[in-house]
Q: What sequence folds into this?
């Protein structure tokens, strides 16, 4: 799914920048896929929305939510305005269309070609990945929340990529091919 969002910002290069939103529930492989995609796509920048939530104590309230959204908008606008980058990759848990809409609205009049991908996998694969993730302590409620959100992603009007039986590298190659960069 790609479309042109138009506005006041004109890309400095002849090629319209590609903005990639990589979406999916916790544990589906967004971060690893995006790291692989960054390596595959020259002149690219990556922002993982989770980086903006890295804080101690971890508090989710109206104030911190607004701060995170403002930080995401600031970084994405900076990447889009920099002439070096042809692709800007953003990944985050965006289980509601309103979250995607908010991210896009925050970019104002930036002009880019948009591709929204949702990574999905089987429930079994998701459980296995979450339990194997040594980078975070996975509690039972995290697994349940992630499993409960799977149907929300299936119903989104985005390009789906099933990661159940493929590696992060293979997923990244599919994404690169889909945007015409491989």
A:
């Amino acid at each position: 799914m790609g479309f042109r969002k138009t506005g006041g910002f004109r890309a400095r290069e002849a090629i319209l920048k590609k903005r990639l939103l990589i979406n999916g529930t916790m544990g589906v492989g967004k971060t690893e896929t995006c790291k692989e995609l960054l390596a595959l796509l020259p002149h690219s920048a990556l922002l993982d929305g989770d980086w903006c939530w890295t804080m101690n104590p971890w508090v989710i309230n109206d104030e911190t939510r607004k701060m995170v959204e403002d930080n995401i908008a600031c970084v994405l606008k900076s990447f889009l305005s920099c002439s070096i980058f042809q692709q800007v990759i953003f990944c985050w848990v965006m289980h509601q269309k309103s979250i995607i809409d908010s991210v896009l609205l925050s970019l104002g009049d930036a002009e880019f070609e948009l591709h929204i991908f949702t990574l999905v996998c089987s429930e079994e694969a998701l459980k296995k990945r979450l339990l194997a993730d040594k980078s975070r302590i996975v509690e039972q409620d995290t697994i349940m929340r992630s499993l409960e959100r799977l149907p929300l992603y299936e119903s989104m009007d985005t390009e789906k990529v099933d990661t159940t039986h493929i590696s992060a590298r293979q997923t990244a190659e599919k994404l690169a091919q889909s945007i015409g960069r491989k």
User: Anything to note?
Assistant: Confidence is low (pLDDT under 50) at residues 1-14. The beta strands are 2-5, 18-23, 44-48, 87-92, 112-120, 159-162. The longest helix spans residues 62-81.
